[in-house]
Automatic annotation (TrEMBL):
InterPro entries (alphabetical): ArsR-like_HTH, AsnC-type_HTH_dom, Dimeric_a/b-barrel, Tscrpt_reg_AsnC-like, Tscrpt_reg_AsnC/Lrp_C, WH-like_DNA-bd_sf, WH_DNA-bd_sf
Classification of source organism: Bacteria, Bacillati, Actinomycetota, Actinomycetes, Mycobacteriales
PROSITE patterns with a match to the protein in the record: HTH_ASNC_2 (PS50956)
Record key words, sorted: DNA-binding, Transcription, Transcription regulation
Transmembrane segments annotated in the record for this chain: none
SMART domains, per the entry: HTH_ASNC
Signal peptide as annotated in the record: none
Protein name in UniProt: Lrp/AsnC family transcriptional regulator
Domain HTH asnC-type span(s) in chain numbering: 13-74
Gene3D superfamilies: 3.30.70.920, Winged helix-like DNA-binding domain superfamily/Winged helix DNA-binding domain
Pfam families (UniProt xref): AsnC_trans_reg, HTH_AsnC-type
SUPFAM superfamilies per UniProt: Dimeric alpha+beta barrel (SSF54909), Winged helix' DNA-binding domain (SSF46785)
Superkingdom: Bacteria
Length: 156
């Protein structure tokens, strides 16, 4: 389910917190013992830091990164949707029913949503965009390549 942006109180992060965040972004499977060795702290103090970062909403989860093509998704596209109403429930319901929709962002400007879609083929992309077009006008951009596919986030 999509939720509106909410302001949370920020944790005060120090260089040790930054190091933990960087290490976990490089290897989310790193054990507490490995993290502790890398930052020169005890495992219990490191576990406390990770717990504080998680409880404070800085670390929001752990995941594995996969190659979409290895799973049969050969086409990546961004679909801009000009949604004509303020009732977003139909959009949320449709996005939830399409596993090929891997990101959706409510944005400013002429379009209401920018949606990242993975498809098995151009025909599959046509099926997906046809479903999205039932909600409003769409513009589709197919990705040729991604020179910067994803970056780790550094503290602001």
């Amino acid at each position: 389910m999509f939720s509106p942006v909410q302001s949370k109180p920020r944790l005060d992060l120090d260089s040790t917190d930054h190091a933990i965040i960087e290490l976990l972004q490089q290897d989310g499977r790193a054990s507490v013992a490995q993290l502790a060795r890398a930052i020169s702290m005890s495992p219990s103090a490191t576990a406390d830091r990770v717990r504080r970062l998680t409880d404070g909403g800085v670390i929001t989860g752990y995941s594995v990164t996969v190659d979409p093509e290895a799973l049969g998704y050969t086409v990546t596209a961004f679909v801009r949707l000009a949604y004509p109403t303020g009732n977003y429930k139909p959009f949320h319901d449709l996005a939830d029913s399409l596993p090929e929709v891997i990101e959706a962002h409510h944005v400013t400007g002429a379009d209401c949503f920018i949606i990242k879609v993975l498809a098995r083929s151009m025909r599959d992309l046509e099926r997906i965009t046809g479903r999205l077009a039932t909600l409003g006008g769409i513009t589709t951009n197919v990705v040729y390549s991604s020179p910067v596919p994803s970056r780790h986030i550094t503290p602001a």
